[in-house]
Amino acid sequence: MNKHLAIYPGSFDPITNGHFDIIRRGLRSFDHVCVAVAYNAQKPSGLFTPDERVEMLHEVTGEFGDSVSVDKFHGLLVDYVARRGAATIIRGLRAVADFDYEFQLALMNRHLNANVETVFLMADAEYLYTSATLVKEVAALGGDISKQVPESVARRLKEKFGASQ
Ligand code: ADP
Fold first, then answer.
1. Cβ atoms within 10 A of the Cβ of 120, count?
2. Which residue's CA is minimally distant from atom 18 of ligand 1?
3. CA atoms of 32 and 47, how far apart (whole Å)
4. Rounded Cα–Cα distance for residues 11 and 92 (Å)
5. 108-134, pLDDT tens digit by residue?
6. Domains detected in the chain
């Protein structure tokens, strides 16, 4: 089992500055963080395709060099983590609102594979209210999301919603 590697799973539709901050913090404890985009090929959902999300993650995490890799997966997270030979899942916590769901998820994952540990990291308070869902809603209505997402992502959101503004 590779104890140097942590998997940071999520939908990343798209990556926000909150996600980025978690990746950066994860690298303080792990040599390598793999950001893994979860998708369901049978039931596609979201604004960006899994490949577009991966592309944006590549662009944004490029500055970390080989320390960060980007992947996508479907199926059970614990199976993916085991396939990668990792022992740790990173999840980010914002306010109390995240706790209930994240707690359930971590316990379910532990039930499914007791060898995999979930660690929680807190993003900077600045990103407490940043969520990909809210960012998309605001961007769709032409609001300013430049503080919430990296520049390249803000550009992509503009492209997506440009016609409807
Ligand atoms: P979102 O909840 O924004 O749609 P994801 O489902 O992709 O994002 O979330 C992946 C992980 O990142 C989850 O553990 C989520 O709680 C965490 N996360 C998302 N946004 C933030 C943020 N602003 N600060 C800290 N953690 C975050």
1. 15
2. 92
3. 28
4. 13
5. 999 999 999 999 999 999 999 999 999
6. 2-129 (3.40.50.620)
Tell me the average pLDDT of the chain. 95
* 98 in contact with ligand 1, CB cutoff 6 A: yes
22, 73, 136, best to mutate for ligand 1 pocket (most atoms within 8 Å of CB): 22
- Summarize pLDDT for 71-113 with one digit per residue, the tens: 999 999 999 999 999 999 999 999 888 899 999 999 999 999 9
State which H helix or E strand residue 28 sits in. Answer: helix 17-29
Find the length of the chain: 165
Does this model's pTM top 0.70?
Answer: yes
Q: Cis check for the bond before 14: say yes or no (omega within 30 of 0).
A: yes
Q: Whose CA is nearest to atom 4 of ligand 1?
A: 132
Asked whether 1 and 115 are in contact (CB, 8 A), the reply is yes
